[in-house]
Amino acid sequence: MKKKIGGLIILMSFVLLLSACGEKSQEDVIADLKENMEKMDGYKAKAEMNMNTGQEQQTFQIDIWHKKKDMYRVGLSSKDDDKGNQIILKNKDGVFVLTPALNKSFKFQAEWPQNSSQPYLYQSLINDIKKDKEAKFEVTDAHYVFKTKTNYQSNNNLPYQEIYLDKKSLKPVQVKVLDKDKKALVDVTFSTFDQKAKFADDDFSMKKNMGSEKAKETIATAGEQDPLTVYYPSYMAGAKLTEKKETSTDQGDRVILTFEGDKSFTLIEEQANPQTMMNSPNEVKGEIVNLGFAVGAMTENSVEWTHNGVDFMLASEDLTKEELIEVAKSVTNKEVK
Q: Fewer Cβ within 10 Å of end Cβ, the chain: N or C?
């Protein structure tokens, strides 16, 4: 009898110990995340983003700044295109995509970042977690893992994501964006995340982020131009190249490629020269789109972007938005003119 009572006491003690050390529930973690965001005045983070959405893997270094409530600065750099480093900037004047080395800027009317999932923005991840009532939740030794739906307005080919959060701090550790077959095509890995970041008054200004001195240096050495490198898409939506027209402009060489088929389109390429003065940003009635190797400006029937010293404009009355993006992402095959 004493043995039974002793065994029962040990069992009850073990159960109590397990309860005391019990893991937080999904609801507990979501409540903690909401509280964490409400308390946070801003953050600075660094991450690496690998994208396998095109023909080749692309790697970006991302520098993320956020100041409560609605100020953002996301710097994207690639070792393969140092002159194409870009900044997504949101301040009291609007939403912009900047290419400082070329003194170029686009202004968007879109409600970025609220209008779409953003795998490198902490609050976007938390919003996706809160919105998905069917989100799956797992606990590992080091992480809380949420598996949720995404909200990419112009790309339905990436419907899922896995979000890894540090159990102690709830900081983002890794985000995997998955295709319909649950294959990871985008992988964002955070290296730092500072929840007590401080900002200067002009950190989110256009002038500071365009880097006027650097732009002047670039412009001063822009007189010599390399030959235009012409790029071709590997995905053509069933169309075929029917015409290649070469012209010259004040900017330099321009090539117009015409593709015809059931879904015809035109691809215009020209040398990207630094602007000689700080012009007003080109206003776009569209949205920001990440092509894997560059951030572009997308309208209903076109996509514009700059990469490796070339300005691109892809336009079509036949292609859907998803097809426009797919063609644009495949424009990697090149020929030196």
A: N
